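To: structure subgroup
Subject: Chain for Friday's discussion

All,

I'm putting the inputs and outputs inline so they're searchable in the archive.
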Amino acid sequence: MSTIFRAHRIRLYPNNKQATYFNKACGVARFAYNWALARSRELYERDGTYRFNEASLRRDLNAIKAEQFPWMYEVTKCAPQLAIQNSLNSAFKNFFAKRAGFPNFSKKGIHDSFSTSNDQFKVIGKSVQIPKLGKVRLAELLRFNGKDMSATIIRRADKWFIAIQVELPKPEPMHTGENQAVGVDFGVKHLAVLSDGTVVTSSKASRKYEDQLRRLNQELSSRKGAKKGEKQSTNFKKTKR
């Protein structure tokens, strides 16, 4: 069965502890993004060719973070990993496809966010369960009923949001019969005549307003007396309106 993906963005209402964690996770994601981008620039300055291997960069960061960046362990491991795997990877794909310029460094306070995998959160009614944080209140229920794939927590000004991506079965096209396509001829006597012979008649209300429109058009034409540059009469304007 083929599937499709849908995302639902919902307002979050974290308490102080949860908001502090979110801020730290955004900082870790931003640091990882900038670290990997700086490494990519170093390779270019050394070899003269832009190369981007997100898997290699993630391995390199994992190899040194315990010694050099131990504070990264204060938040989910997904924050730095997905910042490189998804965000920076997407930025480089757009650059190589000439859809955008070379990626810029991420700045604090501008599009602050971090992502997490589906094993790091669970939607329960009007809340989302996050390890070490407990339940964070949601403004509304998740709109889609499917498999939760990933979540991105976003800060805009002083407000927090979560964008949850859900995998859903692709709806099957509706089949109403063998000959589904028909031609349509719109006319005056009938509203429409289909190529299979079906006649769609106008409703009484439609015929009533067609007659009224025809009469008003004739009346408008008879009151069109003003020459170019002259003001139209009050009766003309009234009929036109």
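Points worth raising on Friday:
The radius of gyration is 31 Å.
The chain is about 40% helix and 25% strand.

D.
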